[in-house]
């Protein structure tokens, strides 16, 4: 009891010290204490009359003021009782009658009217509208959201009725505008709370498409709320009505489009300084655009954000994510180089890992990538320790890729074993990561440790339940390298069973090659024909909208198929068929070294000189292409039988090719020929021996095609 | 699906498209279908009483719990499983309310199915249900991809004016594919299509997400965490003394980790977005489960170094953080608390 009293006392003291709540009207003011006491007793009538006397108000005004007092005191139930005592609808009808009749409808909004009458009617209108608005708020706080929404809606309906030509900009009563803005913002939220989503959508659109003279910040809030609603409510909004559409303007057709449009408009407003920056907008846009895989559009939006909003490193890193998701690797790497510079944030793990991954895809960048990966490994500590495995994995991939860049044999084998070591290190952290298992397998295969490779290939297929196409292909290649062709074919057939027709291309190509290896050219031709039909069907029906094939990067191209078929026919000495195939292939690609090579074999020595010059032209365009070098080298070495001066050129080309790809069997073979024609029999023997050894462990397609 | 290239807004259900003459007939037909479904369910779920109407059944948590526990049995996905057969038949009935009843269990079925794939146990029952959903979407999308036109602000729109050329802009729009064309002859035996088929089932689930009960959403968040397979790692750094128990928990959860291609991640993200920001009633439990799932998927995206998933999951996490910040919880529709009240 005592405690209660003392707290009451201190509250009173506090009140008398701080500015007291006062009620003012018509030049008079009064303290609220007396009125509040009456309200607390539940005596609304008495409270009202004391207001009417003290401030010379009419009954409505007094009630409205009382209601607001109750609301502000946090007594929403009391406020509701007071508001229910006012006949608000009648008041609105009176206002409508007294409102000025419609003038020229063409000049919306900005018609100057008689000042006193205008402000008087605005004043009266605000009194009523604010009362209804507070009633809606009170209902909302009591959880009666549907009723609240109806009251709130009636505020907006009334505004439209009373001010049929819009509220005049110049002399709008600020309090009236405030009430209107509040109601515009509250209405959709109330419908949403009450679960009436269709009403919520039309309330949002009404807020944004009608003239409410909202200030920029509240308009921005409504736009953002609507965008969030469209993105996440899971309720499909029907497209906006035709009435709101201006000829030639963009009309969104569905939720995602409308949400992205709104968010982009918001971002533009921020950039132009028209509204206060809201960090959630860019996050919502990030979500929306990455769902549609439009990260390059997102990058553009990020670039337009005013400087100072993000730190530059933050911006660079986000942009790098966007560009790398959009496949623009070099742009992403350039940005990451800046953000990982020693004066910026050199230890940022996500940036380091992304950079190392992007570099691991490109032999010339692999060395740089290994550096990033090593830094990631060193920095993955504490909370981020779980990323250490990822760092090791990237390190392994980068080193493996680096081993492909021309370098000394010693350096190459060092890189390869380091790569394996790193991948093994990674697996200690992530023993359940199938991707890692796969990469480890490929690394072993590249080093011709076929036993280990086949073990990992099987493990990968198990772990992914056979759902990843490259797993099947890898196992078939490993088996082919072990010269177990029939088993490889069984695996390929199993994979074909697991794969939809549309994605079977690479498997069919593999199968055809396996048939050739098993000296079964007729069936190989059959398989090639089937593959051709598939590839051609795909070419015709592949619109931009049919994507998402697992082997996106490894689509079989038609040229390759014609070329393969030509090669097959030439081995069968079906020269007419060879010619047809080569013609078809020629239509698709004008100059190709390996095609010319086949053609050269076909017509033998007649055109070789010409062909050679063409090939050399090709090499100028594509300097590092191993198959190209080998093809030209092969041509020259065969020609060298009669024409000695071409041999040194052939020799340097082939040695070049072997520096890049030391496991290229054909290069060894032709280099052997060059030595033989030149009379260096011992060297020739070594080369032929290398070629034959490699043949025993040569996969039917290069292992590097699947990683 | 919510976005569509062609004309359809929601999956067209033949039974509700009937004109007034056939309404009565349809209604009795509907009732009959629902009664059949209820009766056959009562022979499968024996632990609790089945309500007599579909609308009651949809909201009956006891029945849902009973079905869920049946689904979670180790042999639940097999081809001769009664419950799977019931789910399949019920979905085939083309009755919208019965569809909802089946969709409610998509999170559980998809979650169990994909996580059990490496165990090599027969799952023909689950496969039949998932394929039925896939076939339904294939028909209703009519060989169209789901696309979005990315707006270009240099052209005016209903929400903004622009000084740019107001010519017909349909040609220069940037079309984005949200969900690619469905291959009508897909079967789940083709295991390389598995993720796509489950992804489409999740897309269908998302299209009805506003009508799904909270337990179903909780099931989904659980499935996401399992698929991501990153549970142990988040905690490992925080409580090192529990290292051993965490390690045990991790190896238990290993079974759930699955490859997460974009065709799965994308619908997953949309559902989680709804759980975090789109629910009618504030539901703390669902929100927390969803943000945990998001956290796991974000970590997984980092492990996969998948930039698109990093962006999507990262943005959801940051939005969640912002929403929890008291400074962003201002009610802008509240009136100002003046000390002087005037008329």
TrEMBL record, chain A:
<protein>
    <recommendedName>
        <fullName>Calmodulin-binding protein MPCBP</fullName>
    </recommendedName>
</protein>
<feature type="compositionally biased region" description="Low complexity">
    <location>
        <begin position="1"/>
        <end position="18"/>
    </location>
</feature>
<feature type="region of interest" description="Disordered">
    <location>
        <begin position="95"/>
        <end position="120"/>
    </location>
</feature>
<feature type="region of interest" description="Disordered">
    <location>
        <begin position="1"/>
        <end position="21"/>
    </location>
</feature>
<dbReference type="InterPro" id="IPR019734">
    <property type="entry name" value="TPR_rpt"/>
</dbReference>
<dbReference type="InterPro" id="IPR043376">
    <property type="entry name" value="NPG1-like"/>
</dbReference>
<dbReference type="Pfam" id="PF13432">
    <property type="entry name" value="TPR_16"/>
</dbReference>
<dbReference type="InterPro" id="IPR011990">
    <property type="entry name" value="TPR-like_helical_dom_sf"/>
</dbReference>
<keyword id="KW-0802">TPR repeat</keyword>
<feature type="repeat" description="TPR">
    <location>
        <begin position="665"/>
        <end position="698"/>
    </location>
</feature>
TrEMBL record, chain B:
<dbReference type="GO" id="GO:0005829">
    <property type="term" value="C:cytosol"/>
</dbReference>
<feature type="region of interest" description="Disordered">
    <location>
        <begin position="1"/>
        <end position="31"/>
    </location>
</feature>
<protein>
    <recommendedName>
        <fullName>Hyccin</fullName>
    </recommendedName>
</protein>
<dbReference type="InterPro" id="IPR018619">
    <property type="entry name" value="Hyccin"/>
</dbReference>
<dbReference type="GO" id="GO:0005886">
    <property type="term" value="C:plasma membrane"/>
</dbReference>
<keyword id="KW-0963">Cytoplasm</keyword>
<keyword id="KW-0472">Membrane</keyword>
<feature type="compositionally biased region" description="Polar residues">
    <location>
        <begin position="18"/>
        <end position="31"/>
    </location>
</feature>
<comment type="similarity">
    <text>Belongs to the Hyccin family.</text>
</comment>
<dbReference type="Pfam" id="PF09790">
    <property type="entry name" value="Hyccin"/>
</dbReference>
<keyword id="KW-1003">Cell membrane</keyword>
């Amino acid at each position: 009891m005592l405690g209660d009293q003392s707290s009451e006392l201190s509250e009173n003291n506090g009140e008398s010290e701080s500015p007291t709540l006062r009620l003012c009207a018509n030049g008079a003011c009064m303290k609220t204490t007396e009125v509040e006491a009456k309200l607390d007793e539940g005596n609304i009538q008495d409270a009202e009359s004391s207001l009417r006397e003290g401030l010379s108000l009419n009954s409505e005004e007094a009630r409205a003021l009382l209601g607001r007092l109750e609301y502000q005191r946090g007594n929403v139930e009391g406020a509701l009782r007071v508001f229910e005592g006012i006949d608000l609808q009648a008041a609105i009808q009176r206002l409508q009658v007294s409102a000025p009749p419609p003038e020229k409808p063409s000049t919306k909004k900005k018609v100057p009217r008689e000042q006193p009458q205008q402000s008087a009617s605005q004043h009266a209108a605000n009194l009523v509208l604010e009362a209804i608005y507070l009633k809606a708020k009170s209902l909302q706080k009591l959880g009666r959201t549907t009723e609240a929404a109806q009251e709130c809606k009636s505020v907006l309906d009334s505004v439209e009725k009373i001010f049929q030509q819009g509220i005049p900009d110049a002399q709008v009563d600020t309090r009236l505008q405030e009430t209107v803005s509040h109601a515009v913002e509250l209405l959709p939220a109330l419908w949403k709370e009450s679960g009436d989503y269709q009403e919520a959508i039309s309330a949002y659109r009404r807020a944004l498409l009608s003239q409410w003279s909202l200030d920029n910040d509240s308009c921005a809030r409504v736009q953002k709320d609507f965008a969030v609603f469209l993105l996440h409510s899971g309720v499909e909004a029907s497209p906006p009505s035709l009435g709101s559409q201006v000829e030639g303007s963009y009309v969104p057709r569905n939720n995602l489009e409308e949400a992205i449009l709104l968010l982009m408009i918001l971002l533009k407003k921020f950039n132009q300084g028209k509204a206060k920056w809201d960090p959630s907008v860019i996050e919502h846009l990030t979500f929306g655009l990455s769902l549609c895989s439009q990260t390059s559009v997102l990058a553009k939006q990020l670039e337009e954000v005013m400087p100072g909003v993000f730190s530059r490193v933050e911006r660079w890193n986000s942009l790098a994510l966007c560009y790398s998701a959009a496949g623009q690797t070099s742009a992403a790497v350039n940005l990451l180089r800046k953000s990982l510079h020693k004066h910026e944030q050199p230890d940022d793990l996500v940036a380091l890992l992304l950079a190392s991954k992007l570099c691991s895809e490109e032999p010339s960048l692999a060395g740089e990538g290994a550096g990033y990966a090593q830094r990631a490994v060193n920095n993955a500590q504490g909370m981020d320790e779980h990323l250490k495995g990822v760092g090791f994995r990237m390190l392994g991939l980068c080193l493996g890729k680096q081993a492909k860049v021309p370098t000394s044999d010693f350096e190459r084998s060092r890189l390869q074993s380091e790569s394996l070591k790193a991948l093994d290190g990674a697996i200690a952290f992530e023993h359940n990561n199938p991707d890692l298992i796969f990469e480890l397998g490929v690394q072993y295969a590249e080093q011709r440790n076929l036993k280990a490779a086949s073990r990992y290939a099987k493990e990968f297929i198990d772990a992914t339940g056979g759902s990843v196409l490259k797993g099947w292909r890898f196992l078939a290649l490993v088996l082919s390298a072990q010269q177990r062709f029939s088993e490889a074919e069984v695996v390929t057939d199993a994979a074909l069973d697991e794969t939809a027709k549309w994605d079977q291309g690479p498997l069919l190509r593999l199968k055809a090659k396996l048939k050739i290896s098993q000296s079964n050219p007729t069936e190989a031709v059959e398989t090639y024909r089937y593959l051709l039909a598939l590839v051609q069907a795909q070419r015709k029906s592949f619109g931009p909208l049919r994507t998402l094939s697992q082997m996106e990067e490894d689509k079989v191209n038609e040229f390759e198929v014609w070329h393969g078929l030509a090669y097959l026919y030439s081995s069968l000495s079906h020269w007419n068929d060879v010619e047809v195939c080569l013609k078809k292939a020629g239509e698709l690609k004008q100059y190709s070294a390996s095609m010319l090579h086949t053609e050269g074999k076909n017509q033998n020595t007649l055109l070789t000189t010409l062909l050679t010059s063409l090939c050399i032209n090709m090499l100028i365009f594509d300097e590092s292409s191993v198959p190209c070098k080998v093809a030209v080298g092969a041509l020259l070495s065969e020609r060298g039988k009669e024409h000695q001066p071409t041999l040194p050129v052939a020799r340097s080309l082939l040695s070049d090719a072997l520096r890049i790809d030391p496991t290229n069997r054909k290069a060894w073979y032709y280099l052997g020929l060059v030595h033989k024609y030149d009379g260096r029999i011992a060297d020739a023997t070594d080369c032929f021996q290398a070629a034959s050894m490699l043949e025993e462990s040569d996969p039917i397609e290069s292992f590097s095609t699947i990683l | 699906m919510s976005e569509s290239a062609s004309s359809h807004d929601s999956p067209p259900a033949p039974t509700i498209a009937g004109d007034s003459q056939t309404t009565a007939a349809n209604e009795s037909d509907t009732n009959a279908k629902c009664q059949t479904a209820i009766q056959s369910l009562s022979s499968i779920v024996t632990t609790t009483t089945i309500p007599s109407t579909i609308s009651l059944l949809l909201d009956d948590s006891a029945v849902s719990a009973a079905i869920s526990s049946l689904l979670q049995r180790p042999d639940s996905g097999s081809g001769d499983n009664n419950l799977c057969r019931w789910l399949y038949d019920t979905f085939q009935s083309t009755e919208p309310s019965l569809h909802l009843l089946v969709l409610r269990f998509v999170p559980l079925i998809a979650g169990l199915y994909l996580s059990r794939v490496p165990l090599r146990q027969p799952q023909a029952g689950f496969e039949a249900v998932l394929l039925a959903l896939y076939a339904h979407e294939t028909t209703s999308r009519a060989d169209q991809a789901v696309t979005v036109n990315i707006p270009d602000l240099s052209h005016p729109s209903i929400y903004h004016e622009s000084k740019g050329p107001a010519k017909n802009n349909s040609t220069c729009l940037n079309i984005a594919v949200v969900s690619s064309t469905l291959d009508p002859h897909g079967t789940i035996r083709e295991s390389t299509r598995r993720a796509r088929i489950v992804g489409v089932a999740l897309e269908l689930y998302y299209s009805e997400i506003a009508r799904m009960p909270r337990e179903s959403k909780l099931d989904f968040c659980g499935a996401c965490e399992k698929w991501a397979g990153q549970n142990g790692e988040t905690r490992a750094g925080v409580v090192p003394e529990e290292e051993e128990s965490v390690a045990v928990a991790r190896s238990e959860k290993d079974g759930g980790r699955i490859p997460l291609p974009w065709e799965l991640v994308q619908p997953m993200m949309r559902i989680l977005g709804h759980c975090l920001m789109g629910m009618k009633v504030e539901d703390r439990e669902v929100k927390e489960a969803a943000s945990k799932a998001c956290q796991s998927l974000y970590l997984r995206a980092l492990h996969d170094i998948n930039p698109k998933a990093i962006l999507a999951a990262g943005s959801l996490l940051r939005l969640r953080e912002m929403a929890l910040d008291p400074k962003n919880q201002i009610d802008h529709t509240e009136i100002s608390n003046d000390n002087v009240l005037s008329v």
